[in-house]
Amino acid sequence: MKLLIKNGHLVDPENNLDEVLDILIEDTKISRVAPAITEDADEVIDAKDKIVMPGIVDMHVHLREPGREDKETIYTGTKAALKGGVTSVLAMPNTEPAIDSPENIRLLKDIIRHNAQIAVFICGAITKGRLGQELTDIALMKKEGILAISDDGFSVDSEKLFFEALKKARRHKVLVIAHCEDKALSKDGVVNLGFTSTRMGLRGISKESEYTRVKRDINLAEKAGCPIHIAHLSCKESVEIVASAKKRGLKVTCEVTPHHLSLTEEAVLGYDTNMKINPPLRSKEDVEAIKQGLALGVIDVIASDHAPHTESEKDIEFERAEFGVIGLETELAVAITELVLPGILTWKQLVEKFCLNPARILNINKGTLSVGADADVAIVDPKKTWKVVKEEIASKSKNSAFLERTLTGKLLYTIYAGRILYHG
Ligand code: DOR
Ligand code: ZN
Protein backbone atom coordinates (compact mmCIF):
# COMPACT_ATOMS: atom_id res chain seq x y z
CA MET A 1 0.00 0.00 0.00
CA LYS A 2 1.46 3.33 -1.08
CA LEU A 3 0.09 6.69 0.06
CA LEU A 4 1.49 9.88 -1.43
CA ILE A 5 0.97 13.29 0.21
CA LYS A 6 1.73 16.01 -2.32
CA ASN A 7 2.49 19.75 -2.09
CA GLY A 8 2.06 20.01 1.68
CA HIS A 9 3.95 22.43 3.91
CA LEU A 10 6.01 19.99 5.96
CA VAL A 11 6.90 20.92 9.51
CA ASP A 12 9.36 18.49 11.03
CA PRO A 13 11.74 20.02 13.59
CA GLU A 14 13.78 16.85 13.93
CA ASN A 15 14.95 17.21 10.34
CA ASN A 16 14.82 21.00 10.39
CA LEU A 17 12.12 21.00 7.69
CA ASP A 18 9.70 23.88 7.24
CA GLU A 19 8.97 23.88 3.52
CA VAL A 20 6.84 22.48 0.71
CA LEU A 21 7.70 18.80 0.12
CA ASP A 22 6.03 15.52 -0.81
CA ILE A 23 5.92 12.45 1.44
CA LEU A 24 5.61 8.87 0.31
CA ILE A 25 4.29 6.32 2.77
CA GLU A 26 4.77 2.63 2.07
CA ASP A 27 2.76 0.32 4.30
CA THR A 28 3.37 1.53 7.86
CA LYS A 29 6.50 3.64 7.35
CA ILE A 30 7.58 6.90 5.74
CA SER A 31 9.69 5.87 2.74
CA ARG A 32 10.59 9.17 1.02
CA VAL A 33 10.51 12.90 1.71
CA ALA A 34 11.43 15.00 -1.34
CA PRO A 35 10.21 17.70 -3.70
CA ALA A 36 7.88 16.55 -6.49
CA ILE A 37 7.73 12.78 -5.94
CA THR A 38 6.18 11.25 -9.08
CA GLU A 39 5.92 7.62 -8.01
CA ASP A 40 2.64 5.79 -8.57
CA ALA A 41 0.65 5.40 -5.39
CA ASP A 42 -2.58 3.68 -4.38
CA GLU A 43 -3.85 6.94 -2.95
CA VAL A 44 -2.77 10.55 -3.39
CA ILE A 45 -3.66 13.43 -1.05
CA ASP A 46 -3.21 16.96 -2.34
CA ALA A 47 -2.06 18.96 0.69
CA LYS A 48 -1.50 22.29 -1.03
CA ASP A 49 -1.66 25.16 1.51
CA LYS A 50 -1.96 22.61 4.30
CA ILE A 51 0.41 21.84 7.16
CA VAL A 52 1.77 18.30 7.19
CA MET A 53 3.19 17.41 10.60
CA PRO A 54 3.93 14.30 12.65
CA GLY A 55 0.96 12.91 14.56
CA ILE A 56 0.72 14.47 18.03
CA VAL A 57 2.30 12.65 20.97
CA ASP A 58 0.06 13.57 23.91
CA MET A 59 1.88 12.56 27.07
CA HIS A 60 -0.95 13.28 29.52
CA VAL A 61 -4.27 11.57 28.84
CA HIS A 62 -6.89 9.95 31.07
CA LEU A 63 -8.60 7.15 29.17
CA ARG A 64 -10.44 5.94 32.31
CA GLU A 65 -10.39 2.26 31.39
CA PRO A 66 -10.42 -0.01 33.33
CA GLY A 67 -13.16 0.96 35.75
CA ARG A 68 -14.73 4.17 34.57
CA GLU A 69 -15.99 3.20 31.15
CA ASP A 70 -18.94 5.53 31.74
CA LYS A 71 -16.52 8.47 31.29
CA GLU A 72 -14.32 7.13 28.47
CA THR A 73 -12.88 3.91 27.10
CA ILE A 74 -9.70 3.03 25.27
CA TYR A 75 -11.83 2.86 22.11
CA THR A 76 -13.74 6.16 22.48
CA GLY A 77 -10.70 8.03 23.80
CA THR A 78 -8.46 6.95 20.95
CA LYS A 79 -11.23 7.75 18.43
CA ALA A 80 -11.37 11.26 19.91
CA ALA A 81 -7.57 11.44 19.68
CA LEU A 82 -7.69 10.73 15.95
CA LYS A 83 -10.07 13.65 15.50
CA GLY A 84 -7.48 15.90 17.12
CA GLY A 85 -4.48 14.68 15.12
CA VAL A 86 -3.17 12.67 18.07
CA THR A 87 -1.53 9.34 17.18
CA SER A 88 0.26 8.46 20.43
CA VAL A 89 -0.89 8.93 24.01
CA LEU A 90 0.47 8.19 27.45
CA ALA A 91 -2.41 6.80 29.52
CA MET A 92 -2.46 7.97 33.13
CA PRO A 93 -2.81 5.37 35.91
CA ASN A 94 -5.67 6.84 37.97
CA THR A 95 -8.09 4.18 36.77
CA GLU A 96 -10.11 1.74 38.89
CA PRO A 97 -8.11 -0.26 39.78
CA ALA A 98 -5.06 1.97 39.51
CA ILE A 99 -2.30 0.82 37.15
CA ASP A 100 -0.04 -0.19 40.02
CA SER A 101 0.94 -3.82 39.39
CA PRO A 102 2.14 -6.11 36.58
CA GLU A 103 -1.30 -7.83 36.59
CA ASN A 104 -3.16 -4.56 36.10
CA ILE A 105 -0.74 -3.55 33.34
CA ARG A 106 -1.33 -6.86 31.58
CA LEU A 107 -5.09 -6.30 31.86
CA LEU A 108 -4.73 -2.81 30.37
CA LYS A 109 -2.42 -4.02 27.59
CA ASP A 110 -5.03 -6.59 26.64
CA ILE A 111 -7.73 -3.90 26.31
CA ILE A 112 -5.32 -1.71 24.33
CA ARG A 113 -4.45 -4.59 21.98
CA HIS A 114 -8.13 -5.13 21.19
CA ASN A 115 -9.57 -1.62 21.21
CA ALA A 116 -6.98 1.11 20.73
CA GLN A 117 -7.07 2.96 17.41
CA ILE A 118 -3.65 4.58 17.94
CA ALA A 119 -0.50 3.93 19.99
CA VAL A 120 -1.32 3.87 23.70
CA PHE A 121 1.68 3.90 26.04
CA ILE A 122 1.26 3.23 29.74
CA CYS A 123 2.15 5.27 32.79
CA GLY A 124 2.21 3.22 36.00
CA ALA A 125 1.48 4.51 39.50
CA ILE A 126 4.27 5.50 41.89
CA THR A 127 2.50 4.16 44.95
CA LYS A 128 0.07 1.28 45.40
CA GLY A 129 -3.47 2.48 44.84
CA ARG A 130 -1.94 5.97 44.43
CA LEU A 131 -2.35 6.24 48.20
CA GLY A 132 1.13 7.58 48.88
CA GLN A 133 1.96 4.80 51.37
CA GLU A 134 3.90 2.05 49.61
CA LEU A 135 5.93 2.05 46.41
CA THR A 136 4.82 -0.03 43.45
CA ASP A 137 7.25 -2.54 41.93
CA ILE A 138 8.83 -0.24 39.37
CA ALA A 139 11.20 -2.92 38.02
CA LEU A 140 8.41 -5.38 37.30
CA MET A 141 6.16 -2.69 35.83
CA LYS A 142 9.00 -1.63 33.55
CA LYS A 143 9.28 -5.24 32.39
CA GLU A 144 5.61 -5.05 31.43
CA GLY A 145 6.39 -2.01 29.31
CA ILE A 146 5.53 1.16 31.24
CA LEU A 147 7.37 4.29 30.09
CA ALA A 148 6.72 6.45 33.12
CA ILE A 149 5.38 6.55 36.67
CA SER A 150 3.07 9.12 38.24
CA ASP A 151 0.44 9.35 40.97
CA ASP A 152 -1.22 12.06 38.83
CA GLY A 153 -4.13 13.64 40.64
CA PHE A 154 -1.97 13.45 43.77
CA SER A 155 1.56 14.33 44.72
CA VAL A 156 3.55 11.84 46.81
CA ASP A 157 3.55 13.72 50.12
CA SER A 158 6.26 11.63 51.76
CA GLU A 159 9.64 13.02 50.79
CA LYS A 160 11.32 9.78 51.75
CA LEU A 161 9.03 7.70 49.55
CA PHE A 162 9.29 10.03 46.57
CA PHE A 163 13.07 10.05 46.87
CA GLU A 164 13.08 6.22 46.87
CA ALA A 165 10.85 6.26 43.79
CA LEU A 166 13.22 8.64 41.99
CA LYS A 167 16.22 6.45 42.76
CA LYS A 168 14.43 3.34 41.51
CA ALA A 169 13.14 5.16 38.43
CA ARG A 170 16.66 6.21 37.61
CA ARG A 171 17.95 2.65 37.97
CA HIS A 172 15.22 1.25 35.73
CA LYS A 173 15.16 4.15 33.27
CA VAL A 174 11.54 5.09 33.87
CA LEU A 175 10.39 8.70 33.60
CA VAL A 176 8.95 10.26 36.76
CA ILE A 177 6.00 12.59 36.09
CA ALA A 178 5.20 14.78 39.07
CA HIS A 179 1.76 16.19 39.86
CA CYS A 180 2.87 19.07 42.06
CA GLU A 181 0.38 19.93 44.76
CA ASP A 182 0.79 20.24 48.50
CA LYS A 183 -2.64 19.15 49.73
CA ALA A 184 -1.94 20.63 53.15
CA LEU A 185 -1.99 24.00 51.37
CA SER A 186 -4.59 23.46 48.62
CA LYS A 187 -6.91 21.59 51.04
CA ASP A 188 -10.41 21.52 49.67
CA GLY A 189 -10.06 24.57 47.44
CA VAL A 190 -11.87 24.64 44.11
CA VAL A 191 -10.68 27.81 42.29
CA ASN A 192 -7.60 30.02 42.23
CA LEU A 193 -7.03 31.75 45.58
CA GLY A 194 -7.47 35.53 45.35
CA PHE A 195 -9.82 37.69 43.36
CA THR A 196 -11.96 34.81 42.03
CA SER A 197 -12.28 32.83 45.25
CA THR A 198 -13.26 36.00 47.11
CA ARG A 199 -15.78 37.10 44.53
CA MET A 200 -17.34 33.68 44.17
CA GLY A 201 -17.32 32.89 47.86
CA LEU A 202 -15.47 29.64 47.18
CA ARG A 203 -12.40 28.13 48.81
CA GLY A 204 -9.16 28.98 47.02
CA ILE A 205 -6.13 26.97 45.88
CA SER A 206 -2.96 29.00 46.33
CA LYS A 207 -0.16 29.09 43.78
CA GLU A 208 2.13 28.28 46.67
CA SER A 209 0.54 24.83 46.96
CA GLU A 210 1.91 24.13 43.47
CA TYR A 211 5.26 25.88 43.27
CA THR A 212 6.56 24.78 46.67
CA ARG A 213 6.02 21.19 45.49
CA VAL A 214 7.66 21.92 42.11
CA LYS A 215 10.69 23.14 44.04
CA ARG A 216 10.72 20.16 46.41
CA ASP A 217 10.36 17.60 43.62
CA ILE A 218 13.11 19.14 41.49
CA ASN A 219 15.44 19.22 44.51
CA LEU A 220 14.74 15.57 45.27
CA ALA A 221 15.29 14.63 41.60
CA GLU A 222 18.60 16.44 41.65
CA LYS A 223 19.67 14.59 44.79
CA ALA A 224 18.63 11.26 43.26
CA GLY A 225 20.32 12.09 39.94
CA CYS A 226 17.06 11.32 38.17
CA PRO A 227 15.31 13.21 35.36
CA ILE A 228 11.89 14.61 36.29
CA HIS A 229 8.93 15.85 34.27
CA ILE A 230 6.54 18.35 35.87
CA ALA A 231 2.91 17.84 34.82
CA HIS A 232 0.45 20.62 34.01
CA LEU A 233 2.13 23.62 35.60
CA SER A 234 -0.15 26.61 36.02
CA CYS A 235 1.65 29.62 37.49
CA LYS A 236 4.46 32.08 36.95
CA GLU A 237 6.50 30.90 39.94
CA SER A 238 6.53 27.30 38.67
CA VAL A 239 7.80 28.49 35.28
CA GLU A 240 10.55 30.46 37.02
CA ILE A 241 11.60 27.50 39.17
CA VAL A 242 11.83 25.22 36.11
CA ALA A 243 13.76 27.90 34.21
CA SER A 244 16.34 28.22 36.95
CA ALA A 245 16.67 24.42 37.30
CA LYS A 246 17.31 24.17 33.56
CA LYS A 247 19.88 26.92 33.81
CA ARG A 248 21.68 24.85 36.43
CA GLY A 249 21.79 22.00 33.90
CA LEU A 250 19.28 19.71 35.63
CA LYS A 251 17.30 17.18 33.64
CA VAL A 252 13.95 18.83 34.24
CA THR A 253 11.17 19.04 31.66
CA CYS A 254 7.62 20.29 31.98
CA GLU A 255 4.28 20.54 30.25
CA VAL A 256 1.34 22.92 30.11
CA THR A 257 -2.24 22.24 29.06
CA PRO A 258 -4.15 24.11 26.33
CA HIS A 259 -6.52 25.50 28.97
CA HIS A 260 -3.84 26.83 31.30
CA LEU A 261 -2.11 28.61 28.42
CA SER A 262 -5.28 30.26 27.14
CA LEU A 263 -7.84 30.80 29.92
CA THR A 264 -7.72 32.90 33.08
CA GLU A 265 -9.57 32.54 36.37
CA GLU A 266 -12.21 34.94 35.02
CA ALA A 267 -13.59 32.01 33.02
CA VAL A 268 -14.91 30.43 36.23
CA LEU A 269 -16.83 33.51 37.40
CA GLY A 270 -20.02 32.19 35.77
CA TYR A 271 -19.74 29.00 37.88
CA ASP A 272 -19.28 26.95 34.71
CA THR A 273 -18.04 23.58 36.02
CA ASN A 274 -16.29 22.95 32.69
CA MET A 275 -13.82 25.56 33.91
CA LYS A 276 -13.14 23.63 37.11
CA ILE A 277 -9.70 22.11 36.76
CA ASN A 278 -6.88 21.04 39.03
CA PRO A 279 -4.60 23.00 39.12
CA PRO A 280 -7.12 25.83 38.75
CA LEU A 281 -7.13 28.47 36.02
CA ARG A 282 -4.90 31.28 37.27
CA SER A 283 -4.38 35.01 36.65
CA LYS A 284 -3.59 36.90 33.47
CA GLU A 285 -0.05 37.35 34.71
CA ASP A 286 0.36 33.58 35.04
CA VAL A 287 -0.98 32.96 31.52
CA GLU A 288 1.49 35.54 30.18
CA ALA A 289 4.36 33.81 32.02
CA ILE A 290 3.28 30.46 30.55
CA LYS A 291 3.23 31.89 27.03
CA GLN A 292 6.66 33.36 27.54
CA GLY A 293 7.88 30.08 29.01
CA LEU A 294 6.69 28.29 25.88
CA ALA A 295 8.37 30.81 23.58
CA LEU A 296 11.67 30.67 25.48
CA GLY A 297 11.72 26.87 25.62
CA VAL A 298 11.32 26.65 29.39
CA ILE A 299 8.08 24.74 28.80
CA ASP A 300 8.87 21.74 26.61
CA VAL A 301 5.49 20.17 25.99
CA ILE A 302 1.83 20.93 25.41
CA ALA A 303 -0.31 18.02 26.66
CA SER A 304 -4.08 17.89 26.94
CA ASP A 305 -4.61 16.38 30.42
CA HIS A 306 -7.73 15.01 28.71
CA ALA A 307 -9.92 14.34 31.77
CA PRO A 308 -13.38 13.10 30.80
CA HIS A 309 -16.20 13.23 33.36
CA THR A 310 -19.86 12.32 33.02
CA GLU A 311 -22.65 14.88 32.95
CA SER A 312 -23.81 13.84 36.42
CA GLU A 313 -20.34 14.59 37.78
CA LYS A 314 -20.14 17.98 36.09
CA ASP A 315 -23.69 19.27 35.86
CA ILE A 316 -23.95 19.93 39.61
CA GLU A 317 -22.96 22.66 42.10
CA PHE A 318 -19.49 24.05 41.44
CA GLU A 319 -18.05 22.82 44.73
CA ARG A 320 -19.18 19.24 44.22
CA ALA A 321 -18.25 18.92 40.53
CA GLU A 322 -15.20 16.88 39.47
CA PHE A 323 -12.00 18.61 38.40
CA GLY A 324 -10.94 18.31 34.76
CA VAL A 325 -11.76 18.89 31.11
CA ILE A 326 -11.43 16.93 27.89
CA GLY A 327 -8.89 18.17 25.37
CA LEU A 328 -7.81 15.67 22.72
CA GLU A 329 -10.01 17.08 19.96
CA THR A 330 -9.26 20.75 20.53
CA GLU A 331 -5.66 20.96 21.74
CA LEU A 332 -4.03 21.62 18.39
CA ALA A 333 -6.61 24.22 17.32
CA VAL A 334 -6.42 26.00 20.71
CA ALA A 335 -2.64 26.19 20.39
CA ILE A 336 -2.78 27.42 16.77
CA THR A 337 -5.33 30.06 17.76
CA GLU A 338 -3.58 31.20 20.93
CA LEU A 339 0.08 30.74 20.07
CA VAL A 340 0.76 30.56 16.33
CA LEU A 341 -1.67 33.21 15.07
CA PRO A 342 -0.47 35.90 17.52
CA GLY A 343 3.16 35.02 16.67
CA ILE A 344 4.11 33.63 20.08
CA LEU A 345 5.31 30.33 18.60
CA THR A 346 6.38 29.43 15.08
CA TRP A 347 4.92 26.30 13.51
CA LYS A 348 8.21 24.58 14.09
CA GLN A 349 8.15 25.40 17.79
CA LEU A 350 4.55 24.25 18.00
CA VAL A 351 5.42 20.88 16.46
CA GLU A 352 8.31 20.56 18.90
CA LYS A 353 5.93 21.02 21.84
CA PHE A 354 3.31 18.60 20.50
CA CYS A 355 5.43 15.96 18.81
CA LEU A 356 9.20 15.95 19.02
CA ASN A 357 9.76 16.94 22.65
CA PRO A 358 7.25 14.54 24.22
CA ALA A 359 8.61 11.70 22.05
CA ARG A 360 12.15 12.47 23.21
CA ILE A 361 11.13 12.82 26.85
CA LEU A 362 9.33 9.46 26.69
CA ASN A 363 12.18 7.99 24.64
CA ILE A 364 9.92 6.66 21.89
CA ASN A 365 10.44 6.62 18.13
CA LYS A 366 7.60 8.99 17.33
CA GLY A 367 7.08 12.68 16.68
CA THR A 368 9.07 12.86 13.43
CA LEU A 369 8.62 12.58 9.68
CA SER A 370 12.05 11.00 9.14
CA VAL A 371 12.43 8.39 6.42
CA GLY A 372 11.95 5.02 8.10
CA ALA A 373 9.79 6.45 10.90
CA ASP A 374 6.28 5.19 11.68
CA ALA A 375 3.87 6.84 9.25
CA ASP A 376 1.91 8.79 11.88
CA VAL A 377 0.93 12.06 10.21
CA ALA A 378 -1.52 14.91 10.77
CA ILE A 379 -2.63 17.14 7.90
CA VAL A 380 -4.08 20.44 9.05
CA ASP A 381 -5.83 23.33 7.35
CA PRO A 382 -4.12 26.16 9.26
CA LYS A 383 -6.64 28.83 8.26
CA LYS A 384 -9.97 27.07 8.58
CA THR A 385 -12.11 28.18 11.50
CA TRP A 386 -14.63 25.96 13.26
CA LYS A 387 -16.89 26.08 16.25
CA VAL A 388 -16.61 23.55 19.07
CA VAL A 389 -20.09 22.09 19.53
CA LYS A 390 -21.15 19.42 21.98
CA GLU A 391 -22.92 17.31 19.38
CA GLU A 392 -19.75 16.84 17.37
CA ILE A 393 -17.48 15.75 20.21
CA ALA A 394 -16.25 12.17 19.70
CA SER A 395 -15.17 11.65 23.28
CA LYS A 396 -17.72 9.88 25.49
CA SER A 397 -17.72 12.89 27.83
CA LYS A 398 -18.46 16.41 26.67
CA ASN A 399 -16.80 18.47 29.42
CA SER A 400 -14.81 20.81 27.21
CA ALA A 401 -13.67 24.25 28.37
CA PHE A 402 -13.98 25.45 24.79
CA LEU A 403 -17.64 24.72 24.01
CA GLU A 404 -19.13 27.28 21.60
CA ARG A 405 -15.68 28.78 20.98
CA THR A 406 -14.52 29.41 17.42
CA LEU A 407 -11.01 28.10 16.84
CA THR A 408 -8.62 28.31 13.91
CA GLY A 409 -6.93 25.21 12.50
CA LYS A 410 -8.84 22.13 11.45
CA LEU A 411 -7.67 18.55 11.10
CA LEU A 412 -8.19 17.23 7.59
CA TYR A 413 -6.50 13.85 7.88
CA THR A 414 -5.00 11.79 10.66
CA ILE A 415 -2.85 8.95 9.42
CA TYR A 416 -1.78 6.25 11.85
CA ALA A 417 0.70 3.53 10.85
CA GLY A 418 0.20 4.46 7.20
CA ARG A 419 -3.60 4.26 7.26
CA ILE A 420 -6.01 7.18 7.00
CA LEU A 421 -8.05 6.77 10.19
CA TYR A 422 -9.65 10.19 10.26
CA HIS A 423 -10.77 12.43 7.44
CA GLY A 424 -12.43 15.71 8.43
O1 DOR B 1 -8.33 18.45 36.63
C1 DOR B 1 -7.78 17.36 36.79
N1 DOR B 1 -8.40 16.18 36.46
N2 DOR B 1 -6.56 17.32 37.33
C2 DOR B 1 -5.94 16.17 37.68
O2 DOR B 1 -4.82 16.21 38.14
C3 DOR B 1 -6.63 14.86 37.48
C4 DOR B 1 -7.67 14.96 36.43
C5 DOR B 1 -8.61 13.80 36.42
O3 DOR B 1 -8.14 12.63 36.42
O4 DOR B 1 -9.83 13.99 36.31
ZN1 ZN C 1 -3.94 14.46 34.72
What can you tell me about this protein's structure?
The chain folds into two domains: 2-51 and 375-423, Urease, subunit C, domain 1 (Roll), CATH 2.30.40; 54-362, Metal-dependent hydrolases (TIM Barrel), CATH 3.20.20. Strands 1, 2, 3, 4, 5, 16, 17 and 18 form an eight-stranded mixed β-sheet that branches. It has an eight-stranded parallel β-sheet with strand order 6-7-8-9-10-13-14-15. The mean pLDDT is 98. The protein is globular and about 65 Å long. By secondary structure, it is α/β, with parallel strands linked by helices. It contains 13 helices and 18 strands. It has helices at residues 74-83, 102-115, 138-143, 159-172, 183-186, 195-200, 208-224, 236-247, 258-262, 284-296, 311-314, 331-340, 347-362, and strands spanning 2-12, 17-26, 29-34, 43-46, 51-54, 56-61, 86-91, 119-124, 148-149, 175-178, 191-192, 204-205, 228-230, 252-256, 301-302, 377-387, 406-416, 419-423. Zinc ion is lined by residues 60, 62, 92, 152, 305, 307.
Structure keywords:
single chain; 424 residues; alpha/beta; Urease, subunit C, domain 1; TIM Barrel; 2 domains; eight-stranded mixed β-sheet; eight-stranded parallel β-sheet; 13 helices; 31% helix; 24% strand; globular; binds (4S)-2,6-dioxohexahydropyrimidine-4-carboxylic acid; binds zinc ion
Give the bound compounds.
Answer: (4S)-2,6-dioxohexahydropyrimidine-4-carboxylic acid, zinc ion
The helical percent reads 25-40%
**How many individual β-strands?**
18
Low-confidence stretches: none
Please, how many domains? 2
Per CATH, the superfamily of the largest domain is Metal-dependent hydrolases
At CATH level 2, the architecture of the largest domain is Alpha-Beta Barrel
Number of helices: 13
